[in-house]
Amino acid sequence: MGKVYEGGVPLVEVERSGFVEGGHRGSVIVLDASGNPVASAGDVTGPIFARSSNKPMQAIGMLRAGLRLADPADLALVTASHYGEDFHIARVRALLRSGGLTEAALRCPPDLPLDDAAKIASGGTPQRVYMNCSGKHSGMLLTCRAAGWSAEDYVQADHPLQQRLNETIEEFAGESAAAMGVDGCGAPVLALSLTGLATAFHRLAEGVPGSLERSVADAMRAYPELVSGTNREDAQLMRAVPGLVSKVGAEGVWAAAVPGKGAVAVKIDDGAARARGPIMITALRRLGVTADVPTLAEPRLLGGGRPVGALHPLW
Description:
- The chain is built from 12 helices and 11 strands.
- It has helices at residues 55-64, 72-78, 86-98, 116-121, 134-147, 160-173, 194-205, 212-222, 224-227, 233-240, 276-285, 294-297, and strands spanning 9-16, 19-31, 37-41, 47-49, 179-182, 188-193, 245-249, 253-258, 262-268, 300-303, 306-313.
- Strands 1, 2, 3, 7, 8, 9, 10 and 11 form an 8-stranded antiparallel beta sheet that branches. A 3-stranded antiparallel beta sheet has the order 4-6-5.
């Protein structure tokens, strides 16, 4: 059996009314501007499923396979875990139409929008286009069209599309995947170490002008609300730090990088999304990067409808 993720260390405490009522364990790695480790906590060499944090590298793989998008906003959407707001859904549908495709071609499962208002507006009827990975899946379908590959089975692990995307992820991470699974959207997901994930983001952020990785990074920087949602983590962080690229993943994963500064990758062991923000902000500070986003740095806890506590980083 290969190396396994051995788990993290206490990273965040949960304080309510001056009393510590809980905490979150996890791991974090910080790479400097040269891509070398300068700080870490927990297990940063054991493999974890990077989940949607792999999407920027998958987008690069699609471009390598022949995907061509005239509008950088569409490329940003291909990297997205979108919240199903009106502008997300309209762009996914337009992207599909550009390839002569309908929503029926999507192989992600029907779902409801992640955004609360959009969920109510949907009438409670799940649709494939609402699923947060529908932008990525639209990009996959268009890539298959461009490359002359079959589209009906594009999510299968042995499909040439997925093989090309996996090769790209491994190349950018500088390591072979320790395992392959099925992500929530039905497409393959690779297990990488946090060091490998941070390395991939470092290379993404440092892409030279004219490179495919630079086109993906620039699209994400230009349209952060398409990568996530109007006031969601990725959008907040990219708006706060010029040049930064950011992508969260399910189960408490988050990776980000700033050109000329370095990269960070975080994993919260219990999968709690609320705990990754304080560690991401703290890790960026170790690179001399200040992100003024209080809702991420110390998320508040409410009691009786008013703030009575917060999450505090221990690292």
